[in-house]
Structure formats: C-alpha cells, structure tokens
C-alpha cells in the first residue's frame, strides 16, 4: 500500500515529538510536513527541538532535516499532506479555528486537543470502545460544507485508563463511580528536571481536568441519534473525579471504586477484562495484542514498571478487591503520551483509514 502523507501541527512539543517518533517506521503513514508556531517556523526540525528533545530515541533522520512550517499557513501545509495530526498548544477558540480551517481545506484532522471534543458531530475516539461514532462524520462534513475534510479527536489522557476498564463491565450496570487520577508531568508537556516544584511534591489541581474526567466518558459511552447527525452522551453513570499531578515522568494511574446494579463476582470481572478484544477484526498496526492486562502482584501496576505494556498502548490493571462502600475497587494505568495522546491518535487514524474516511488526496479530489 502507498503510504498516506501525514502532517503534524505542534510537531515540536511533547505530543508532537511522540508522533514524529512513532511514525518513523509506520507501515501506513509517513511524515511529510511538520508545523509549529512562527517561532519555530523556518528552522530544520533538528534545530527547532535541539535543546528540548524529550524522547528516549534520537530524532528520526528523515524528520530531522524537514523545515518546520508555520501551522497557520494552511494552504502551504495542505499541499504536502493527505491529513494532519494536531497537537498545538493554543487557546480553545484558536485551536478550533485552526483545526476547522484545515478541515475546510479538505484535510482530515486527528486532534489531541480538547476544543472540538464535545461538539456533537465530532467523534471522540477510543477506537476499542466507540469505533461506530465515526458514522457522524458525514453530518459534520455537511455542517462545514466540505466533502473530504473532518475533525476527529482523542479524549483526555486522564480517562484513558479507567474508561477502557469500565467499558467491558457495562453489562453489570455501573451506578456510581469514584475515580482519583495520579497524573505524570509529561501530561503537562513538562519534564521533571525543569519542573523543580514537583520534586518531593504533588499538586492537587489540574485546570479543567476533573470536569473532563467526569464528562468525556459519557460522550464515549453515548449513542448516535437516529439520523447519525449527533452523538448523544449517555445519561450516566455519574463519575466523581479528583485529579492530582504527581512527580512521575510518564503514566497516568487511576484508582477506581464502582457500585453496580448487578454486582458481578471477581471472576466475572477478570473474565470480561481478559476477553475484551474489540478491534481484532481491523488488524490495526498500533493495536496491542492484549488491550487490558491484569497483574496479580499486589503492588502493581506501577508507572516505572508497567507504563510501556503493549508498546505503551495497553492498559495495566491490578488490585481488584471488594470495596466496603462501593462494590469493587481497582487500580489502572495508561501511558499518557502514547495511549493517551500520540499513540491513541495514530490508532484512531488507522481505524479511520480502515473505515474509508482517510484516503490519499488524489483519491478524494
Ligand atoms: N502531553 C500529554 O500527555 C497530552 C495528552 C493528551 C493531550 N494533550 C494535548 O495536546 C496538545 C499539545 O500538548 P503538548 O504537551 O505536546 O504541548 P507542548 O509540549 O507545550 O507543545 C505545544 C506545541 O504547540 C505549538 N504551538 C504553540 N503556539 C503555537 C501557535 N501559535 N501556532 C502553532 N503552533 C503553536 C508549539 O510550537 P513551538 O515549539 O514553536 O512553540 C509546540 O509544537 C495540548 O492541547 C494538550 O492539552 C497532551
């Protein structure tokens, strides 16, 4: 298959660097354009990130020599690519305006940003859970008066661990959920060595995160309306979330307590997790062989030991036990810049390609 040409908006940032790294040897996509703010535009990618390359592997050779473009120069970027990943750090309104401008230029946009997430005709994807929500894309195209462009988004990284764990348990009708998240510094685009306030400390506030952690799962568990013009969020279950920044490099860990209408036994829960393979039919390159991995050791999962499970795309679970107030409680962990950002958006792009929404520009013109 001829590879699709991908552009990356916000290529110099934490998520952008992950995207560049993950796309290095991708079987379906290749990096064709890199864009960021006007400050980085005009430099080679290697120069633009020279003093802030945070990945463990070196800058991929092909990307290193690409000249970074100004992301606001939409037609110049559009000419070179079939679709874009967006990972810019801008205000909400500016981000939405930029992403819609790319969509109106007939480019699919796969976004890590929150601006378009709650729009009813924008699919917010965890591909294993709501791949059917992409059916709303034709309605979004009608709203924007376009034929081939669209915006699809990834959800917030904080919910990426517990929503996958709760979804296979929906048959037991969860009634109340209480979650605390312990979120890595890379989730703020930062590293420990340049964030001294985090040393030996934690910060019990992440702006907007608790609201997103409570609301976004309901959209993911929502259903399309009758004419597939909108995703209607689920009415429940209600979630109470507290989000804490902790001195961890990578990995968002969540503790979850849940009350069910039909309280399942321990074996039933473990069985549902072990047998949750919803993407098997698609054969997507970034899909981990086992999505939900339960660890029996009582001190797991731990970010340092488990964050890279399934090349950072699996969710690690542990400590399933009865709860004296709710029914069950457990711990879950996901990699926030892999599964929670760059890897998750690449998986979404793979799904969209398989479903026929991502194509070569010449096929769509
Ligand atoms: N980090 C995570 O784990 C994570 C997870 C999920 C979602 N996200 C979301 O992903 C987005 C990026 O996060 P990040 O952590 O990668 O941020 P970051 O490290 O701060 O990177 C921000 C990127 O945006 C670019 N940018 C800034 N101003 C711009 C402008 N005016 N025009 C075009 N580009 C501009 C920057 O370019 P310059 O280098 O030129 O300034 C840089 O490439 C955010 O919306 C964030 O909420 C992050």
Structural class category: alpha/beta
**Gyration radius, in Å:** 20 Å
User: Which overall shape is indicated by the principal axes computed on the Cα atoms?
Assistant: globular
Number of domains: 2
Can you tell me the residue ranges where pLDDT is under 50 for at least 5 consecutive residues?
none
The name CATH uses for the topology of the largest domain is Dihydrodipicolinate Reductase, domain 2
Beta strand %: 15-25%
Ligands in the structure? NADP nicotinamide-adenine-dinucleotide phosphate
| Average pLDDT reading | 97
* Biggest β-sheet description: 7 strands, parallel
Order of SSEs: EHEHHEHEHEEHHEHEHEEEEHEHEEHH
How would you write the strand order of the largest sheet? 3-2-1-4-5-7-6
What does this structure look like?
The protein is α/β, with parallel strands linked by helices and about 375 residues long. The protein folds into two domains: about 5-155 and about 340-365, NAD(P)-binding Rossmann-like Domain (Rossmann fold); about 160-335, 2-Layer Sandwich (Dihydrodipicolinate Reductase, domain 2), CATH 3.30.360.10. Helices cover about 25% and strands about 20% of the residues. The strands form three sheets. A seven-stranded parallel beta sheet has the order 3-2-1-4-5-7-6. It has a six-stranded mixed beta sheet with strand order 11-8-12-15-14-13. Strand 1 (about 5-10), helix 1 and strand 2 form a beta-alpha-beta unit. Helix 1 (about 15-20) crosses helix 12. The longest helix is centred in the last third of the chain and has 17 residues, at about 340-355. It is globular. The chain binds NADP nicotinamide-adenine-dinucleotide phosphate.
């Amino acid at each position: 298959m001829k590879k699709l040409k991908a552009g990356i908006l916000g290529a110099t940032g934490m998520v952008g660097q992950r995207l560049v790294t993950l796309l290095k040897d991708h079987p379906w996509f290749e990096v064709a354009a890199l864009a960021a703010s006007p400050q980085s535009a005009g430099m080679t990618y290697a120069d633009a990130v020279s003093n802030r390359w945070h990945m463990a592997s070196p800058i991929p050779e092909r990307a290193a020599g690409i000249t970074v473009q100004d992301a606001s120069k939409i037609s110049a970027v559009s000419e070179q690519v079939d679709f874009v990943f967006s990972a810019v750090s801008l205000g909400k309104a500016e981000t939405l305006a930029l992403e819609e401008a790319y969509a109106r230029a007939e480019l699919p946009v796969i976004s890590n940003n929150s601006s378009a997430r709650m729009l009813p005709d924008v699919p917010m994807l965890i591909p294993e859970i709501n791949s059917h929500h992409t059916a709303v894309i034709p309605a979004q195209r009608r709203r924007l008066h376009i034929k081939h462009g669209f915006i699809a988004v990834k959800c917030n990284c904080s919910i990426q661990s517990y929503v996958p764990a709760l979804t296979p348990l929906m048959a037991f009708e969860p009634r109340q959920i209480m979650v605390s998240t312990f979120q890595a510094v890379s989730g703020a685009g930062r590293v420990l060595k340049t964030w001294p306030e985090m040393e030996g400390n934690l910060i019990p506030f992440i702006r907007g995160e608790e609201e997103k952690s409570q609301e976004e799962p309901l959209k993911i568990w929502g259903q399309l309306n009758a004419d597939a013009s909108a995703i209607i969020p689920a009415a429940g279950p209600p979630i109470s979330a507290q989000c804490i920044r902790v001195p961890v490099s990578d990995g968002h860990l969540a503790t979850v307590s849940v009350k069910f209408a039909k309280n399942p036994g321990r074996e039933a829960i473990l069985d549902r997790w072990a047998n949750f393979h919803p993407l098997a039919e698609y054969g997507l390159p970034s899909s981990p062989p086992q999505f939900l991995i339960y660890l029996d050791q009582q001190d797991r999962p731990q970010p340092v030991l488990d964050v890279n499970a399934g090349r950072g795309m699996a969710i690690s679970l542990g400590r399933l036990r009865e709860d004296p107030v709710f029914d069950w409680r457990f711990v879950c962990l996901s990699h926030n810049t892999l599964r929670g950002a760059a890897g998750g958006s690449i998986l979404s792009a793979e799904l969209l390609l398989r479903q026929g929404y991502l194509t070569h520009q010449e096929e769509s013109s």
